[in-house]
Each structure stands twice: as C-alpha cells, then as structure tokens.
Amino acid sequence: MTLLKMQHLNITYKTQEKAIKAVRDFDLNIELQDSMGIVGESGSGKSTLAMAVLQLLPKDITDISGEIIFNGIDLLKLNSEELKGIKWKEIAYVFQKSMNSLSPVHKIGYQLSDVYKVHEPNANKRQIRERVCELFELVNLPSRVYDLYPHELSGGMMQRVSIALSLIYYPKVLILDESTTALDVVTQRQILEEIMKLQEKLNLTRIMITHDVSIVASTCNKIAVMYAGYLLESGYVTDVLHSPKHPYTEELLNSYPSLRGEKGYLKGIPGYLPDLSQEHKGCIFADRCRKAMEKCFYNRPEMVEFSNQWKVACHLAGSEYSE
Amino acid sequence: MSSLLEIKDLTKYYVKKKAKNISRNKKKRQIIKAVDGVSFSLESGKVMGIIGESGCGKSTLGRLLIALEEPTSGIVKFQGKSISSRIKEDRLKFRRDCQMIFQNPFDTFDPRNNIKRILTSALKIHNIGSSKEERLDICIKYMENAGVIPAKDYLNRYPHELSGGQLQRISIIRSMLLNPKLIIADEPVSMLDVSVRADIINLLLEITEKQKAGLIFISHDIATTSYISDSIAVMYLGRIVEIGRTYDIINNSKHPYTKVLISNCMSIDPFENSKVIKIKGEPVTPMDAGEGCYFAPRCYKVSEKCKESYPPMIKVGEGHYASCFYLFDGESYLFTQ
Amino acid sequence: MGNYIKKRTITGVLTIVFSFCLTFFLTRCAPGNPVKVLAGADNPNPELIEHLTIRYGLDKSLPVQFVNYVKDVFKGDLGYSYISNRPVTTLIAEKIFPTILLSSTATLLSVVIGTILGIYAARRAGSILDRVMCGISYVFDSLPGFWLGLILILIFASGLGLLPTSGMYDVREDYEGLPKVLDIMRHMILPVSALLIIQTPAYFRVARSSVIQTMSEDFVLTLRATGMSENKIFNKYILRNAIIPTVTIFSSDLAFMVGGVTFVEIVFAWPGMGRLIMEAITRRDYPLLTGIYLMISISICIVMLITDIVYAFIDPRIRLR
Amino acid sequence: MKELKIGLVMLTILILVAIFAPYIATKDPYLLNDDLIAEPSAKYIFGTDGLGRDVFSMVIYGTRTSLKIGIFVAAVSSTIGILIGGVAGYIGGKVDRIISEIINIFLMLPTFFITLITIAIYGSSLRNIIIVMALTSWTGTARLMRSQAISLRERTFIKSAQTIGESSISILFKHIIPNGIFPIITNSTMIVSSAILSEAGLSFLGLGDPNVVSWGKIIAHGKTYLPRSWWICTFPGLAIVFTVLSFYLIGEGAHKLLNPKIRTKG
Amino acid sequence: TNKADEVGNNDGVDEVVKTGEAGDDRAKEGGTFVVSMGREPQTYNPNAYNDDGAYIVIQNIFNKLVKINGYDEIVPDLAKEWEFSEDGTEITFYLHENVKWHDGEDFSSEDVKWTFEQILKEKGFASGSLSDIEGIICPDENTVVMKLSSPNSGILGYIAWFGTYIMPKHIYEGTDWLENPANHKPIGTGPFKFVEHKSGESVTIVRNDDYWGDKPYLDKVVFRIIPEQSTAYQAWLNGEIDHTLNGVPATELSRFENDDNYLIYDKLWPNRGYILFNMKEGKFSDLKVRQAVAYGIDRDEIFTKALKGIGLKAEYFISPLYEWALNKDVKLPERDIEKARALLEEAGYTADENGIYFTTTIDTYPGFDDIVEVLQSNFREFGIDLQHNAMDDPTYDEKVWFGRDFEITMLGGYQGPDISAIGNRFGAGSVMNLGDYNNPRVEELLKEGVIFSAKEDRAVVYKEIQELLAEDLPAIFLYEKGAKIVVNSYVKGYPASAEAVEKASESEFTYVWLDK
Ligand SMILES: Nc1ncnc2c1ncn2[C@@H]1O[C@H](COP(=O)(O)OP(=O)(O)OP(=O)(O)O)[C@@H](O)[C@H]1O
Ligand SMILES: Nc1ncnc2c1ncn2[C@@H]1O[C@H](COP(=O)(O)OP(=O)(O)OP(=O)(O)O)[C@@H](O)[C@H]1O
Ligand SMILES: [Mg+2]
Ligand SMILES: [Mg+2]
Ligand code: NI
Asked: Is E14 exposed, middle or buried (0-12, 13-18, 19+ CB in 10 A)?
C-alpha cells in the first residue's frame, strides 16, 4: 500500500538573480513500512524534497508544483491548519544540522515537552516527563539530558535528542536527513540499529537521506538515487546496489573503496553538478557520463520500470530493456 | 637508516577552565588529554593511516607533528633532529619540508585571495622563482600535473567559486609546490562528496610515490584509510591502541577497539553480512579517563585488571603492536559472541 | 559563581584604581585651577588666591596631593568640594536620585518601546510600515539632543501649554505624598521624551535585526515542522534568543546612566549629575570631579558585573570565565 | 543593495558640495550682512542668522567641517581599534588580557568628560576635536575586532598560512584584518554620524572650534533664535539628517551585501 | 565730615529710564515670587569668595553697612549714617537699633567688627580692597569706627559693593568659616529668611517678619535654577516663573515693547567690554598697530549686530556713568580703514595678495563669541587675520591671567564701585592689568585720585588719565554693558522700578509686590 507518493514534483528556489530548480519532475512511491534511502551528491535536492513534504520551505522564495499524496491526501493542497494535524504527528523529520535544531537558550526537556504539548495540550507535566524519558531511553540517552542545554551535549548526543524529538508522537513516517553522517562508525551503527528496532516495533515508514551509500546498503530496503533534482534510479537495495542500471549509480558505487576487497583503482566521477538554474536538454548526467551517447544530449530519457519496482531513467537502460 | 619522522611519548594536554553550569562551578580546571603518549615512526615514501573516532586527538597529533602547537612533552624528530630546534634554525626551511592538508577545504584559503595569489604567495615566501611570471609558470605546471586543467581558468577565481573537491586539490597542489618531505593529510576527504573523493585519494597517492615523501593520512573513514595506507595506527582517547601494517590491522586486528571499529564499518554491498561487535556506552571524554585502560568502560572483554593500570604495548606480529591485556586468549571470543 | 564574582571584583577594583589614578592626574593637569575661579573675574584678590592655594594644598606637588587624597579616600572621605565646601558625597547623593530617576525611566522605556517596535517591524520586515519605521529611526537618530529638547519645550510647553517647561517640581505648590509623585511625573514627561527619541532608535534597530536573524535560524524550522503555532514559536523561542543583543546595549547604557545626560539636564533644568559634572569641570573643583569620577567607575563596574551575570542566565552558552 | 546605492549617491553629493563649496555658496559664510535674522528669501535662500550671516552659505561650507569630522574620526578610531583589537585577538594570551583590561579602562572613562578636559588643555581647534573624539571612540571597534580575530585565529586558513611559513605580522595584516573588517565597516559608519552629532553637542557647550563653520555651530548659535527664527536651526539640522542617513544607508547596505544570512524579503 | 552721598555719584543715573508706570500705591501683601537664575548657589558664606549664583540670594538675606542702589549710589543699609573724619582716615558708622539676626539673637557692632576682621584675616573676597583698614573699634553697640592707614576716598564704595555682608559672630566665631554649617543654612539680618535649597532645583526664602527695615511685601521668593536661557525664557512666557534673571534673549525684546503687560527697564552698569593688548611683547606692543586696530574696528557694527543695540557703543575712555570725570575731548576714533591700513604699513607690515598683513589670535573666556565674530570680520577688512581661541574660564586664567601669554584678548567687567577702579585695570602691576601697561605719569595720577576727596579735584586727575590712555591705547573700549530688563507689569517694586530703585540693591526683592 502506498503511503507517500510524489508525482511530477517540481521545486524551484527563486533567488534575486536566478531560479534554481532543485527538484525536477520527481515521481516516487513510498510504501507502508518501507525504509527508503535517498542518495545523491550534495546539492542534488534531497533536503529540499524532504522539506517540501512538510511544507517547510520558505513560501515566498519557492515554487512547488505537482502532488505529494500522503494517505490519499494531497499535502500541497492543505491549508496550514489542516497541515498542523499531520506535521510531526504523522510525519516527523530529523534535520540535517541537528546541532542547531533546538533553541540554544532553552533546556532540552523544556523544548521537548513544549513540542509534546502541541498535539497533546492536555498532558500533564509528569506524563510528559515520563514520555520524554522513555524516548531518551529508546535512543540510549541518560535522563539527565532533560535538564541540560543543547550546547552541553556532544554532537552524537544532540543527534540522538533530535531523533528522540522526532519520535515523540511515534509518527507514521520518519524522515532522517543525514542524521548520522557526522558520527563515528560505532555510534552511527548504534543509532541506526536502535531506529531499525523501533521501526519494527512501531510500524514506522522511514526515509533516510544521505550521501553515504553504505548506510543505505545496510539499513534500508529501498533506494532512490537523485542527481541534480532528478530521480535517476530507484528500487530495492538488493537490486540496485548489486547491479546498478544507471551509469551514475554505477560510478557512485565505484568511487567507494571497499574495506576488505582488492586494492583496485578507485574511480571518481569527473566533472561537477550542473548549474541548476540553467535550462538543459537531454539527460542531466550526460556531461559526466562515460557512456553518454549522441541522443543523451538531446532527448530526455524516460523513466523505465523494470520488474519489482526497479525504475531507471536512462537511454541505455531503456534500450537494454527493449532489446 | 633513520626514519623520516620519529615521535616519542608525545603528549598534548589542554587546560580548560570549564563551568558546565553556572551554579555548579566547582571544578576549577580540567585537563583534556588530547594526545597522551604517542610514539611511532614513519619512513620516506610510506603512508601511515591514523584512524579513530571523532575527537580522539587525530588532528591534534597532526598539528603537533608540524609544530603548529607546542607539545606538552615528548619529542618529534624530523629527519633525525627535533622539530623545535629545526624551527629555531630555519623556520622557512622547516615549513617548506612539512606540509599539512587541512580537514576542511572550504576554510583552508583566505576567502579574499584568488587562487593565483594563494599559490604564488607560497612560492614568494620561500623565494622560489625570481619573478612573478616565473612563479606563475611553476604554479600552472603543478596544477596541470594535478589535473586542474585548464589551469588558467582557475587562477583568477576565488575560493568560494570552487567546489570542495577543487579546493582540496588546490590545497594539495599548494603543498606540492614546496616539494615537502612530509605531508600530513587531515581527513582530506571527509568533507567531500563521494564522487570526488576517489580523485583526491589517487592524487595523494601519486604524489607520495613521485616525490618519495612521507604521508600521514588522518581519517575516521576506515575503508578509505585502508585503501591508501601502508600501515595504520588506531587511536583511542589520545593513545595509540594498535599499530601495524594495513593488512594486519584490518584482517587480523588484535585490540578489542580495533575489532569493534572494523566490524562496525558498513559496506556498500547489501549482501555482505558481517558480524558486528556491539559495545555500550558513550565515548568517554578525554577529561575523565581514569587510571586504567581508557577503553575499559566500553570494552566487551573488560576485567578488573583493565581498570587498574594501562596495558603496555605488546608486539603481536611483524611491526604490529597493540596495547591490551587480552590480546591472545580472546581470539575465539569474537565468534562465540 | 562565587569564584567568578570574586575574580571579577578583583579585576574591577584594579581597573577602578587604574582609571582613578589616570583621572586624578588628568584633572589636575588640566589648565587653570579652582582658586582663581573662586576669586572671581572682577577685581580678583591675589591674597585670596594665595590663601586658598595653601589652604587646599594646591601648592604641593602633584604626587604629594595624590598621597594625601588617597589617605582621605581610605578613611572613607571623598573630601570637601572647593566651591561649595560641602562633602563631595553629599553633593553626589543629592543629585544622583533625579539623574537615576530620569535616565532609568528613559532607558527602560526606550528598551521596552524600541524592542517592541523592533519586533513588530521585524515580523513585517519589508512592508511599508517597516520601512517607514526604519526611516523614522534614522531621522530620530540624527537629531541633536539640545535642539530636540528646545523644540519639545516650544511645542508642548509653550505652544500647547500641556506640560511644564522645566524643572522637577512645581515650586509654587508644595505638594506632598501622591500629588508630589504625580507632579514629578508630569515634569518628567518632556525630558524623558527627549531621551526616548534619542535612545529608542538603537534598541529598535537591534531588536529588529536580531529578530530577523533569529527567524532564519535552524531551530525555528524544527519548531515549525512540529506544527507549533507561529505565535508560540515567536513568543517563546525567538524572543528569548533575539533579546540577547538588546541586553548588551542595555547594559552599556545602564552603566553610563549615573553619569547623567548633560544636554537634557541643562535644557530641562533637571537637577542631575550631568550639570554637577559640568559645574565641577568648568570650575576645576578637583575633589568633586575625582569623587564623581570614582563613583561613576564603581557603578560602571558593578553594572557590568551584574549584566554579565544576567547575561549568563539568559544565554546558557555564555560561560563565566 | 538599494540602500548602498542611495547612500553612496547621497555621500557623493555631500562630498561634491564640500569640494565645490565656494562655487555653490551664494555668499561668504563669514560675511556679516546687515539684515539680521532675515527670513529665507531670494536674497538669502535659507535666511540669515543673528549676526547677519547667510545660513545657506554657512550650511554649504559647514559640510566641509562636519564631513571632515565624521570621516576623520571614523577613520582614525577604526584604525586604532582594528590594530589594537587585531593584535589582542590574534596574539592572545597575556597580551590579550592586558589589552582587554586597557579597553575596559577606556570603556569606563566617561568619554564626554575626557573630551572636555582635552579640549580645555589643548584648545578647541578642529584637529584637537577630531583627535579627542577618535581617541575616545575606538574601544567599540577594538572589541569587535578582537572577537573577530579570536574566531579567525581558529580558522583553518590562518593555520594553513602558518604552515606555509608566513610570519605572524604578515598573517595579521594579510589575513586577520582583511577578513575581520566587514562588521567593523558598519560600526565605522555609525561612528561617522555620532561624531557629527557630538561636535554639535560640543558647540552647544561652547567648545566647538570657533574659527570654522560647522552645522553643529550653526544650530548652537541658532538656539537662542529658535522661538521665532526656525530657519537658522532647521537647515543645518536637515543637513545632519541627510548625512547621518547617507552613512546609515551605506552601513546597512554594506552589512547586507556582506552578510547574505540576513536576508530581507522583497 | 563728608556725607556719604557726596562721595557716591548720582550724575550718570538718568540712564535708568522708567518705561512703565507704577500704578496705584496700595501695595498688596503676600504671594510667592518665582524668579529664575542661571547658576546654582554653591555656598551662602557671603564674604569668602565670588559666587555669582549665591550673590542674588545673599542680597535678600544679609545686610551690609552700606549698599549700592539702582542708581549706583551708596545708600544706607545697617548703617543709617556714616561720616569721614577731617583727615579722611576714620569712618564712623551709626547702626540701626533693634536689629535681630534671623535666629533671634541681637545684632551689635561687635558683629561688624568681627566680620571685617575676619574678612581681612581669612583673606575674604574683598580683603584686597579693604587692606587700608587698620583697625576697628566699637565705642558702643550701635557705633563702629574704622581706622584707615591712609586717606582713601574709594573705600566706602568697596564696603558697599560685595564681600562685605555682616555675618553673625555668634555662629561663626571660633569656627572655620568655610566649613561652618551655616554656610548652607545662612543666618542673616536681611529682609528674607532662608528656608531651603533644593539641590539643582530651587532656593526658597520667606519674609523676615521681624525685619528692622522696610518689611517686604512678599511671603516668599523662590529662585528656580534654570541654566539654559531659552528654557528660562519659555518658562517665563508660560507663567511658570514671574521673572527671569537669565534675561530675555535680545532678539525677543521687540515683542514686549508696546505691550501693556510688560515693563522694560533700561539699565546701564559701569561695566564695559574692551580689547586688551599685550604691551610688553608681540605685535601689539607697537603703538602703530594698536592705533590701526582702533581705527579699524567698527564699534557700531559690534553694537548693532553682536549686542543687538543693548547698552551703549563705547565712545570714551571711562564709563560715561562717571560723567563728572568724563573727558569729552578724548574720544575713541571713528572707523577709517584706509588709515588703519596706512598705520599697519607704517609699522612695517606688508599685505599679502588677500590684503592681509599678519595673522594673530585673540584669546577669550566664554561670553564674547558674537563680539569676536564681528571683530574677526572687522579685522579682516583692515588687514589682520584674527583667529579666535575660545577657552573656558580656568584655561583662560592659566594662559592669560597667570601666564600673560597672549597678544590680544577681550576683557569685560565691573569698573566700579568707584572711578578709582580704573587703577585696577591700568595701574602698573595691578590685578587686571594683564597687558602690563606701565606709564609713570598714570601711576602718579592714580595715587592722587584716591587722596583727593572733592569731585572737582578728582575730575582733573581722571581727565588726564583718559588723555594718557588715548595716547598709549593699552586697550580699546568697545561697548558699555547694559540690559533691557523685561518685567511683567503685575510685578511692582522691582529693584529697577521707580518705587525701589533708590532703596534696593540690584536683586533685592524687599519692595516687590504682586498685583495679581
Ligand atoms: N534557500 C535556498 N535558496 C536558493 N537555493 C537553495 C536554497 N536551499 C537550497 N538551495 C539549492 O537547492 C539545491 C538543492 O539543495 P538541497 O539542500 O536540497 O541539497 P541536498 O541534496 O540536501 O544537499 P546536501 O547533501 O549538501 O544536504 C542546491 O543547489 C542548493 O544550492
Ligand atoms: N585548542 C584546544 N583547546 C582545548 N581543547 C582542544 C583543543 N583542540 C582540541 N581539543 C580537544 O582535544 C580533543 C581531540 O581533538 P582533535 O581535534 O584532535 O580530535 P580529532 O580526532 O581530530 O576529531 P575529529 O575527527 O572530529 O576531527 C577533543 O576532545 C577536543 O575537544
Ligand atoms: Mg541536505
Ligand atoms: Mg580532526
Ligand atoms: Ni560678577
């Protein structure tokens, strides 16, 4: 069953000089209890996409078109009051810069209980405290954190506070935006496992935004590869990472050194992310693609769907399929 | 033959006057043992990887090696002579021989200088090249060698107009300009996108080989480090807990912490299903490490002995040392877990 | 905390001592002396000058004078003013109340009004109202104080006849109790307004820009994402964060409050420290000058200490070092 | 950056007026005409003051003095502040502690009083007024620069400059100061306007330089004529507003230009 | 014996013009009279030193032996009569009886003796002018005899002028007169009693019901301290105060001229402003240069522009108030720029392309800004670039008064109470002779001037002095200081009014009553 569905989503930032098309013609289905990893280079529009779901983009400088359907409702059509009921209660978000995601001059417990009161205005103090401590335990934090200020925590602890905050209502959808990238491997693993456990317990649907493919590989069941605002490939992790169909996915995987494997030559992807404010023809990745063909520069590739929800937007993949 | 770099019992303590909470301002000062008795040596043309979690003192060690900071105690010998006397003798010569590539490429250059000025000023300080044109030519040559092509396109740009990868490359080029004998690369790729990491790593490797310089590669990314280095030192709370050749450390690690680190590494292969050693607890801060082994509070092998004294470095193989009381008997522990 | 206060007090005392010495010599090195002033301009009497010079010890060398003065200070005695022959402490005590009354009212009001307007403008940043308010704040900022004072008198006291021109009390009626308080308040309106107009723009702009800045912080986004109402986010979170720069300028204003606001005091004949200082300067009344100076340094030190502590309470990130 | 443009245009006008004062002014500003306190008219555009001087010409010539005061005071005090603050912040340690205490002492000095004394000792010439104002207004800049330097000191590019062998002095002048200077520019524009206003205040107390025409002096002179001769004070007052406004606009504009984080919409 | 009023002069008094009419004679008692004054009294010790703020209040609280009235005559105060001995070395004062101090103690001649001795001992303000007093005897309670070391016809003027208020011996005796608490709660014998001084705000005095002389009408006088003239003026217009001693701004006077609600009194003092040259060194020690200045200055312009036509343009070398001694043949020259330039050339100066011969600086203390502004313009016209160095009083004292470091300066001030005061300004080595003017003939004449007591004899002496001053030009007089005092017409008996002018001293409010 599809829980969250994005259709023809286009998001543009209007700055003074130019319009940056951060997300373009984006279609993605996320099913109930999926764990969807969205990967892509920095600046490819991952955070923008996630923010659009909760309507957090500054309204006056962004244009959004398309649909974001959650549980059958188009979030983009809701007014702010209706949206309030969904925000955090149904969909919660762990921000990329979690170090700054709480007010520096208020105690953590205070802020968490305040958030809890947004949807549970009648909860009494003790209840709230219990709830918050329960969450702390869940993310492996001591309960003394309740009375600390954000700056008194280490980056890892703060990260966990953010996760605890996002879980405060046990939402249906949890979006984690690079939430563990800054942590050391041990802590990172710890937190991710915690979250995976919760996911099972609470029937969470999880969206992981990261540019570290290995995280997706070991914690998600599906993956979506983004590049310059486009979705290039999506499908089950086991399919996509094992035998990537899109050249970009392939190169992305090639540029990771393997820990135990042969010390083969690492290959980077030459070139850089295109200017998102520029109009372009053809495949967005064509400039950097080693396998680019003539038509890649003129025709935009269609999204081709293989079996098992595996979709690829590449002329090569299309031809392969049709062959 | 004496090695290029030799350090012995290097320590660096920071004194921090800290008041966690205004009302609880009892602690007068706290000592942060950022680097706490580190010894190792490095030979020309070799790459030494230093891994360890965030905050374990890797960058501090790097800064000590290049005399950006005064060590609290211990000696750093560069080409057989201590660096403090080298600096006294000839600061410029030393600065020329040792170069550091900083953790954050976006902040390595004065945002108000363009690339041309950034590169030529390094030459000018060291009186390389006689005229402006000559210096510029040298820079362009190096840039083209390093794959920044066409070099002229970049010369008049400012750092903010370049991407992280490009900046990191400029950073490497600048240190190359001076033909250093020792390069310290402090997490040169952690800030970069996966797609450009590989190029940077390859560039670094190539340079060490060509110039026969020693490279110290600091990172907490184990996979990358293992890819690049000849040997690896594992740090925990300011101390080296295990050191040895790369293969030994990755595949035949002895110290529990190393094992934990390596088993926690994630792989991009969704089918690989390695055993993960789980440990509890927060990383201890370098302030309140007690008497015994620093890793003891989180160690899965911990015994009473560990809490009493710090275990000595023991040789466990060819060039492979580790400091733990239970290096040999716990081999099977991993698998029974 | 205790430790911190102790340490700050010690450095505070050192700075006070240092700047005290500095001004002691500075005042006494200024050309002219109080004695000739006392002898008058018409037909001054050289004998009187000589007599007073000896009496006040001004014939001695500066270091000797300094030692004598310091000895007195340690006895808790700031000495007698040369021109009025009254204890310096009494003179200061008489003037400090009106000064503090006037400047604290004005400062508090301008903090409150400036901050409220600043917040209001910040929430409507870019609107016509915001631009108009910013424009007015610039104009107010560039008004010379004494001119503004006279204009206010011309408009409200002379033109409209609503308020008294000057002074602190109505001298015809000897009010007591509540009427006296009301009378003083009536007399305060104009001088306070003049100060308000001059001081408020700074608070306005600080509040406005720091609110705008805080609104773009990441934590605001988090709170928005939770569905918290905009008003609550604003009142509870943004304000507390945005108020910190206001505290900084408030503290520096507060510290100089005791020094008086000379222009306003002169124009509105307000019996305050500013005029006392002017008088002391123009007559070179050394003991009075030094005494006032000492008092100002001490109060600045105390206010700074207090604001530092307040600061640390508002912003937990600031550690008292 | 509309503010910046408008501000710069206004400043240019002021500077042009100052340079070409003799051509713009209709009369000699020191000439005592026989029409005392004449209302603005075709003969006297802004009227005359109590001694019969032409207010328009005085305002035009006053631009020279007042601009000079503002700009010199700001330049001198910013230079002092930047150097002292930069050294304190960059070198740190004992030097920093000593300089910080010195700054504290200066902060505690009632600047107004020092101004009076200094002018009393050395005379009220324009140069002295500028010097004393500059010497008493650098502390803010120094504190700002110090905090800038402290945060810059930790930045990687400073460390990297050290690594390639640059000397401390060249780092201070080449990197610390140029990079820390932006917020100070805004601060300096404020010093410009407050110096112009302070000079007016000094004139009110009879401590301005009596030999030059300044806006402050015209207003101070005009205050006795205020009840019935509005023009004497009003025109120099407008000139001050104009100048202060231009510097504020430049300051704000520069601030916005250099700090993209403060983004005003529309 | 000479009667006092023969010594005093009432020849120049018709300068006091009475513009208003006094209305009916039935004076109303009671009421509070609120006046403003610019400076705050610092101490009420009336004799210790100069305090312009306290001066106004003190006149209403204390009495002197004799005082100076609105016509600048010496009139009785505590002494109802006085007489000089034949040889001029003894003055006998006959005091009023039944005089009481404000605290109820009896006043006696001992208080007078003590006061004068104290002034001389403690070097009070007037001690310099009273130094000829050799001894004081009190033959009885109501008689005081002063013995002088040499005849001095000017001394009575100084006794009447300032710093000679009779102080209560019973309160001050044996104490330090500078630190006696009574300095801040003064006890006098005057028409009003001191009530309180609200610091920075006001001073209140009430009628002394036991006053020995003419009892005041007013219940109370409140002095409001308002430093800024414009503010005081507005407060007066708004009726908050009944009168402003800060003065009505000159430009505003025309408003009141034909208004029945106001009376304007013209007042002229023996007080004149003048340029003083350094005679010893510098450019102005050359007579030619001084003459050039005398020809080059436009005294009319100063009078009309800087003074707004208040007071008088100076014409002579002494104050015209001393008409009996005025030498009408010796006048200041009329303006002649050509002559001025010629004189400068004669003195050896050559003009530059702007017609400027040299640059010099005039040093001033506060109060001469407008005048110097006009002077600068005058000087430029005849070829001297005059820079203005404005200083505050103590700085001026240091540089000019003590240091004599100047080329040209401005001076003003009281030139009474006797014409002999001219000696203070131009006598060799005397206190106000800042330019070090020294003419032996003038010295002789000055000595003669105080020995003679008959006006005719004195006039000859002072006329010759004027001639010498005109020859040597140590100073150039610019104006005679005067004032137009605007008083609400409901304020009767103001010191300058016809009712009070002969009886009251300058700011004494004994005869004031309010017709409201
Ligand atoms: N407020 C904004 N105004 C203008 N452009 C913006 C804004 N926010 C983001 N962008 C642009 O939109 C594009 C997508 O940004 P986004 O933050 O979504 O990338 P991301 O994939 O999350 O990158 P990262 O991995 O670095 O977090 C980028 O090119 C970015 O420069
Ligand atoms: N200048 C300093 N003053 C005080 N403490 C410091 C200073 N520099 C580093 N430290 C502390 O020393 C410890 C080691 O820091 P260091 O930067 O060397 O760690 P790291 O291993 O490089 O971490 P990362 O992987 O995050 O870069 C940390 O706890 C840090 O807080
Ligand atoms: Mg992002
Ligand atoms: Mg580091
Ligand atoms: Ni006087």
From this structure: exposed
Overall size of chain C counted in residues:
321
Give the orientation angle of helix C286-314 with respect to helix C2-29, to 10 degrees. 150
Q: Is the dihedral angle over the CA atoms E247, E249, E253, E256 positive or is it negative?
A: negative
Q: CATH code at A9?
A: 3.40.50.300
C213 has a pLDDT exceeding 70: yes
Whether chain D has a CB inside 8 Å of the CB on C158: the answer is yes
Which residue ranges of chain D lie beneath pLDDT 50?
260-266
In the block, tokens 């001073």 appear at: E203
Residue B8 belongs to what domain range?
3-19+28-112+158-327
User: What are E189's two structure tokens?
Assistant: 């014998």
Phi and psi torsions of E256, nearest 5°: -100, -5
Domains of chain C and any CATH numbers: 1-82+284-320 (no CATH), 90-272 (1.10.3720.10)
Distance between CA E502 and CA E73 in Å, rounded? 8
B319, B247 Cβ separation under 8 angstroms = no
**Residue contact C146–D204, C-beta within 8 A:** yes
Establish if A103 belongs to a structural domain. Answer: no
Is residue C248's pLDDT more than 80?
Answer: no
Q: Which two tokens stand for residue E457?
A: 């004899």
Q: D210–E388: do the CB atoms touch at under 8 Å?
A: yes
Nearest to C31 by CA among E400, E497, E105: E400
Question: Is the separation of the CB atoms in D103 and C13 below 8 Å?
Answer: no
CA-closest candidate to residue B107, choices B54, B167, B188: B167
As averages over each run of 10 residues, the pLDDT of chain B (337 residues) reads: 82 69 48 86 90 86 89 89 87 89 86 87 88 90 82 84 83 87 87 79 86 89 88 90 90 87 79 73 66 81 81 86 76 37
Give the three-class secondary structure for B320. Answer: strand
Per-residue pLDDT at C293: 83
pTM score, whole prediction:
0.83
Place of tokens 């005869």: E511
Nearest-CA distance from C241 to chain A in Å? 7
Q: How far is CA E136 from CA B305, E133, E175, in A?
A: 108, 8, 21
CB of E246 closer than 8 Å to CB of E229: yes
Strands of chain A, DSSP E = 2-14, 19-31, 35-39, 62-70, 73-74, 91-94, 173-177, 205-210, 222-227, 230-236, 304-305, 311-312
Q: Which residues pair with E243 in a beta bridge?
A: E35
For the segment E326-341, what is each residue's pLDDT rounded down to a tens digit?
Answer: 999 999 999 999 999 9
Chain B contact present for C6, CB below 8 A: no
Q: What is the enclosing helix (H) or strand (E) of B314?
A: strand B314-317
Helix pair angle (A155-166, A108-119), 10° resolution: 10
Tell me the residues of D at the E interface, defined by beta carbons under 8 Å apart.
30-32, 36-37, 50-52, 120-121, 123-124, 206-207, 210-211, 221, 223-229
Per-residue pLDDT, averaged over A239-243, amounts to 86
Number of Cβ atoms within 10 Å of the Cβ of C292:
28
What is the number of domains present in chain A? 1
CATH number of D2-265: 1.10.3720.10
**Are the C-beta atoms of D218 and D29 separated by less than 8 Å?**
no
CA distance E462 to E321: 14
Taking only the tens place, the pLDDT of each residue in C12-51 is 888 888 878 888 888 888 888 888 888 887 778 888 888 8
Tokens of C17: 């001592």
